[in-house]
């Protein structure tokens, strides 16, 4: 798509940016990135996930620069990411080795290793805590010390977070849900190649994982409401940290020789769907939808698992099963950029539309005048005949 360059206005743009900066410095507190990261951890997770870059400090910085706008912060962080080198590619991450901090199943009450509720607001009352408005450093320190003492006492002898078996492995062992097929094909990097259709599953999962959180959730909700497959059951939701390692650049070897770089916080979901037989078997079966996102975006991970199943089915009668519809429209940077560009000058294209409308109006007016004249002549002829 081409646009006509607009000249001039440079001074106005400079003054506009100065006014924006003035609004930022005159209406905000001098928060550090550590304070933003500590106060809004889930917002920082969202920005990192949609930008495809794990950098909590930089995500907090982007939020500060964007004055709290997640869309703008994601744009800033993704733009910075595009300037970085990629010297290594990590070894495949085994999420089965996740150090689990939270793990629940809606499918079974008793699961191997037990349900681990962890930190969640799922069961909280959605009431405004007005005491937070006046919470100062002293009150915060007292609460921190009190809760730290409580959990130190409660966790005495409990040990640190540990690896736990997958809940759905119980069903896989019985042959009730399919095991993941081994695939030696290299995953396609969705950040390095244009999006084409049909897209391989690796691209679909990457695009959903880095998609706009609210867009993924909205389409997942639409699918459950009837614009896609039936209501799923969350077989397992697990949240924790996974290890990231890379091979030696000159002497690649096995996992034992890899270099450990650190760990990432992720949320992984396996949802279970009822499915028709594939022809080789009769009756109903179970199918799995998969979601895995950076950070603690649990609702997004569940919605991602729903859309993964939708795109596996690929029935284009439903918008949530249309690859092009879903994958193009969940990208927040693409959506924000395209909609935002409508504010830019479109003088030439609008004048073309205006000329077309005026030309149509003139043609319509001429046709109306001709029709009126013809009607008048017909009336006069009728009157003359009557006389």
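Q: What amino acid sequence fits the structure above?
A:
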């Amino acid at each position: 798509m081409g646009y006509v360059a607009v000249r001039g206005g440079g001074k106005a743009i400079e003054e506009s940016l100065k006014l924006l900066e003035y609004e930022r410095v005159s209406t905000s507190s001098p928060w550090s990135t550590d304070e933003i990261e500590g106060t809004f951890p889930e917002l920082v997770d969202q920005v990192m996930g949609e930008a495809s870059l794990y950098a909590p400090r930089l995500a907090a910085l982007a939020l500060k620069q964007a004055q709290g706008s997640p869309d703008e912060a994601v744009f800033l962080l993704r733009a910075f990411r595009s300037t970085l080198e990629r010297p290594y590619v990590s070894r495949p991450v085994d999420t089965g080795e996740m150090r689990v901090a939270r793990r629940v199943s809606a499918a079974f009450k008793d699961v191997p290793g037990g349900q681990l509720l962890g930190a969640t607001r799922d069961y909280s009352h959605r009431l405004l805590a007005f005491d937070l408005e006046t919470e100062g450093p002293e009150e915060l320190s007292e609460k921190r010390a009190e809760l730290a003492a409580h959990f130190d006492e409660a966790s005495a002898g409990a040990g640190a977070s540990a690896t736990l078996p997958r809940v759905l492995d119980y069903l896989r062992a019985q042959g009730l849900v399919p095991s993941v097929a081994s695939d030696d094909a290299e995953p396609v990097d969705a950040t390095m190649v244009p999006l084409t259709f049909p897209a391989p599953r690796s691209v679909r999962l990457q695009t959903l994982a880095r998609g706009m959180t609210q867009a993924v959730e909205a389409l997942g909700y639409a699918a459950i409401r009837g614009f896609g497959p039936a209501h799923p059951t969350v077989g397992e939701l697990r949240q924790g940290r996974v290890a990231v390692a890379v091979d030696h650049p000159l002497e690649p070897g096995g996992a034992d020789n890899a270099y450990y770089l650190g760990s990432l916080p992720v949320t992984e979901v396996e949802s279970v769907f009822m499915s028709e037989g594939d022809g080789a078997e009769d009756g109903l079966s179970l199918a799995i939808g998969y979601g895995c996102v950076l950070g603690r975006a649990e609702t997004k991970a569940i919605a991602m698992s729903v859309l993964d199943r939708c795109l596996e089915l690929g029935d284009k009668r439903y918008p949530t099963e249309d690859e092009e519809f879903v994958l193009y429209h969940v990208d927040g940077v693409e959506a924000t950029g395209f909609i935002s560009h409508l504010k830019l000058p479109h003088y030439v294209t609008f004048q073309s539309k205006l000329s077309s409308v005026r030309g149509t109006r003139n043609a319509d007016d001429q046709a109306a005048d001709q029709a009126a004249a013809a009607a008048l002549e017909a009336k006069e002829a009728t009157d003359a005949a009557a006389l």
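Q: And what stands out in the fold?
A: Residues 148 and 382 are 101 Å apart (CA to CA).
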